[in-house]
Amino acid sequence: MAPALLLVPAALASFILAFGTGVEFVRFTSLRPLLGGIPESGSPDARQGWLAALKDRSVLASLAWDLGLLLLFVGQHSLMATETVKAWTSQYFGVLQRSLYVACTALALQLVMRYWEPVPRGPVLWEARAEPWATWVPLLCFVLHVISWLLIFSILLVFDYAELMGLKQVYYHVLGLGEPLALKSPRALRLFSHLRHPVCVELLTVLWVVPTLGTDRLLLALLLTLYLGLAHGLDQQDLRYLRAQLQRKLHLLSRPQDGETE
């Protein structure tokens, strides 16, 4: 086990990497398609139909490359979340297991964003071109994206952001308080085992609600939607627990007092 003085910088470095990657992900998924930058699709005259795109090697090569990047991210994010890998990383990295998972996820997502290849000559599923849609649809999409990201950040705070990022585990270890999950109730542990992505609906809104849905964006939205759907396994008991926790959080915010989340 690394000395305590080395654990804190390692956990902080992982957190800073994850935070920076999150900011970049907002730019990649929202600011780029809504405010410009790398075009989501080319000019109407340069685009092809769906059948023609399937015969264009340049389009297929770009889509295959993007698919490979997405599979790399999904594979890393899923494999490192398995009990076998978590047990192995806990054995060799100890309390830094969660920080390692967060850092590897951030690096995999960075690869996706930095090496993503747009397909400007590919077909589009929809596009707001004619007025007044060309003005109002991007504005509506922008508002929905802002609301979605605010909800995402709020939900992450409710779900104990410090613990999700691996900071709380190191903090508790340095102070000799044990493992934070050991203090969670059985209902909370059950919820965590079913819910790996607490911001599913909001992320789907960000992925799909865009003024122009080009070929590469469609690939991104489809694959991540499938992945989010497969990782989402809540039942009525989990939903009742979530509702109770939300009410408890709101009560604590209205009446500030010391207390530990169940």
UniProtKB/TrEMBL annotation:
Membrane-spanning segments: 59-79, 100-116, 136-159
UniProt keywords, alphabetically: Membrane, Transmembrane, Transmembrane helix
Key word Chaperone present: no
Main location, first listed in the record: nucleus
Any GO CC annotation of this UniProt entry: nuclear inner membrane
Keyword Ligase (UniProt): no
UniProt membrane topology term: Multi-pass membrane protein
Subcellular location: Nucleus inner membrane
Source organism superkingdom: Eukaryota
Family the UniProt entry places it in: Belongs to the nurim family.
Protein name: Nurim
Organism: Sciurus vulgaris (Eurasian red squirrel)
Lineage: Eukaryota, Metazoa, Chordata, Craniata, Vertebrata
Gene: NRM
